[in-house]
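Whether sequence alone determines local backbone shape is best considered at the level of individual chains. When preparing material for the folding task, we compiled for one chain both its residues and its backbone structure tokens. No coordinates are needed to read the tokens, only the vocabulary itself. For completeness, the protein is quoted in full, as a sequence line and a line of structure tokens:
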Amino acid sequence: MISFKSRSGLDFSGNAGVRYVRTGLDSFGTTTVPNQATLNISNPYSSRCAIAAPPAGAPPGATPSTPGGVCNLGPTGYALLQQFAGVNSVNLYNQAKNSYTYWLPSVNLKFGVTRNLIARLAGSKVLTRPDSALIRNFQQITIDGNGNFLSTVGNPYLKPATAWQFDATAEWYFSKVGSLTVDAFYKDVSNFFYQSVVSLPLQNNGVTFPLLTRGPANYNGHGKIKGVEVAYQQTFSFLPGFLNGFGFTGNYSYIESSGLPNSFLNGGAPVTNVAAQTVRGSLPLEGLSKHNVNATLFYEKGPISLRAAYNWRSKYLLTAADVIFPYTSIFQDASGQLDASAFLNVTKAIKIGVQGVNLTNTVTKTLQAYTGDPAQLAPRSYFMNDRRFSFILRGNF
């Protein structure tokens, strides 16, 4: 890292440098093929799938029926499933090795336009390694209600997500504790993580079955993030009397993101080919709302400390693919929450107070693209978080 600054009248400084990163991974894991007992297919088709009389208490006119599930495979498919599973479970052991290296340059520039106005420019390449939960070397196999195999896997071959990011910031300090900041930013993200759903074959006992497999993958396209943030903070010390203890801090950000693949523009049908379905640009990046607002009003004077904070964000993508069929994308609806606290310093060492969380009693709502089209969303779930109050006694010794 090299630091520099001007020696003339212009207030100019900055730094530039590059980092070298190398990472290695060695992972062992197993795939367990469930046996006949686990799948409840030990008995022959004729008895396992025999027509059953209506249960006691069934409505008048109810007719005998054939069990569903694996029985939907028919006698031939059921026999192949029995051969595939076998009497004893089979553990398939594997070892995965992965390594990667990156050069990560960065540059930061600062310009003192005036005594109270500062401009900053920054550019860098950064990386984010996948969480350990994503790179676990495992495969979990289950069977759905129609007798189709489903699989959940980890991916020890994941690469880190990388991004070129650029920021341009203007900071105006108009008082001792008062500032207005505007930041414009742009990020170009590569190899970001998403949940891919593909059909992969698995062979056992001479029989091959397709597995509808869900697991983490690197997207081979690019994700774009761009936006602007405005932040303001000030203590109102110019007000008379007790009012000069008030202050405010808040920010608003507008973020546009795109590039995450949507595998389900075909109406949510399971994939039937081996290659991952990656329709470019149909979803935003996970966890990013287009509009974000945070506002805090506070009062600090003498022994009294009061604070009320409200945050709100617009709808955002929770996951590109649900963990259960039909594996379509899930969004969290727009929501806001108000929290507040009040504290009193009884002595220099003892403080009492009360905190309230979710005073607006906000209900968290999730939406799902059941048809596969992210423009057509319907309610999926509702979570009651309730209002929560805490009475606090703090001591410093």
Summary: The chain has a mean pLDDT of 87. The domain at 2-34+89-395 is CATH 2.40.170.20 (Maltoporin; Chain A). Helices lie at 36-39, 45-48, 74-85.
